[in-house]
Amino acid sequence: MNDTMQQVEKEVRETVESGVDIYERVRSITLKALTERTLDIDNIKDVMESVLKGMSDGLSHHYDPAKHAFKQSTEALDDALTKTAEASKLAIEEAAANVDEFSSHDFKRAAEDLKSLEGLFLDTIETVGRHSNETASKIARDFLSHARANGTAVGKQSQIILEGLDNLRISGQQAVMTGAAVTTSALAKIASGFLAGIAESLNPEKPRK
From CA 81, how far away is CA 109, in angstroms rounded? Predict the structure, then answer.
């Protein structure tokens, strides 16, 4: 783990331990970490793992405060991932509108990354939960059971975005998406810029109760 991810883990742990403004602070930490890197799936996964590890390490052994902190932290991360999906959508739309050639492979890769966000989110919670104390493990299992039955914010938003991107591909953009000028890494860099703007628009915001 690099120094940046260690810092993310430390900041989230201290936030959860403090019990103060957990949602707002964890979301801010997450968005800051995401905007400091390109928004490719490996970097997103690293940030998720660091946030959830920090949360787990900071949780109380007492059920009620631990459940509250877990809920606030995971909702904050879910929200940050939703904003990440929105930034990726904007990057794809900009690339399709402003370059002469847009690789079909790149489009498919970006769409696959969007599809994988919810699964990565839930899989990471499951992994962290297995290595947590008994209280945190139970809370994680309950959360996963509910999330897999009812979905997550990032999963729902990604589905809406993917449906919109399918319409983009079908209606009038076929010729654009045939070349190989825009790479996935370029899209990730564009998306990082959009996410930075989204993060800025959310700061400051009233802490969530």
Answer: 17
Query: How far, in Å, CA of 71 to CA of 65, rounded?
Result: 10
pLDDT of 28 > 80? The answer is: yes
* CB atoms inside a 10 Å sphere around CB 3: 7
Please state the length of the chain.
209
Q: Give the whole-angstrom CA distance, residue 117 versus residue 151.
A: 12
pLDDT of 149 > 90? The answer is yes
* 76 close to 27: Cβ distance less than 8 angstroms: yes
C-alpha span between 28 and 23 (Å, rounded)? 9
What band does 54 get if pLDDT is binned at 50, 70 and 90?
very high
d(CA 194, CA 188): 10
Q: Give 106's contacts (C-beta < 8 A, 6+ positions apart).
A: 95, 180, 182, 183, 184, 187
How many other CB atoms sit within 10 Å of the CB of residue 150? 9
Count how many Cα atoms sit within 13 Å of the Cα of residue 138 in the half-sphere of its side chain.
9
Terminal C-alpha separation, the chain: 32
For 176-191, the pLDDT digits (tens) are 444 444 555 677 777 8
Q: From CA 25, how far away is CA 72, in angstroms rounded?
A: 10
